[in-house]
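Repro:
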Amino acid sequence: MFKAIVCAAAIAAMSVSAVCAQEAAKPSTNAAAIAKLDGMKGVWKGPAKGFSQSGPFELTQTERVGNMLGGDVLVVEGRGYKADGKLEFNAFGIVSWNNETQKYEFRAYNGGRSGTFKFEVTETGAVWEMPAGPTARIVSTITLTGDTWREVQEYVADGQPPRQFFEMNLKRVSDTEWPAAGAVAP
C-alpha cells in the first residue's frame, strides 16, 4: 500500500512539473504590458528638489530601471544624494501587470515602509499614487520625452487644490542591463 501511495505521488509530481514547464514556455502577456514602459529603462541622473517636514531640500537623484523575469516586471531603484555625496533617499519598486484585474501594480519599498499602489501608463509616461491619509493621496506624474524624465509629486486632499512638494528632472546617461545582468549561472 505504501509503495502504491509513493508511486501515485511521484506520478502526480511529474505531471505537475510537466504542466509547469509547458506554462513557463508560453510567451507572457505580462511582458507586452510592461513593454509599454520601455522608455523608462536605463540609468538616469539629475536635480531634484522639494519640501519635507524638515523644510526645503535639494538632491542629485539617480534612477536605474530594467526588466526581470523575461520582461514580466519592471524594476526601479531610486537614490537621492546630498551635495556632499551622502545617500539621503533610497527606494525600490516593481511594476507588474495583473492579468486578473487587467491593471498595473506598483510595489514600492522605502525607509522600512512598503505598499502596493495604483499605477497607470499614460501617453507621455505614467502616473502612480499612494494614500496620504483618509481623504488625501500623493500623486506622482512621470513625463518622458526622449532622454528626459520629469517627475512631479503632488499632495491631493479632498476639496483642496493639488500642492506640489517634489520635482525631479533627469537625463538618461546610459542604457543598462541591470538587474538581469550578472545572474548566477549553473
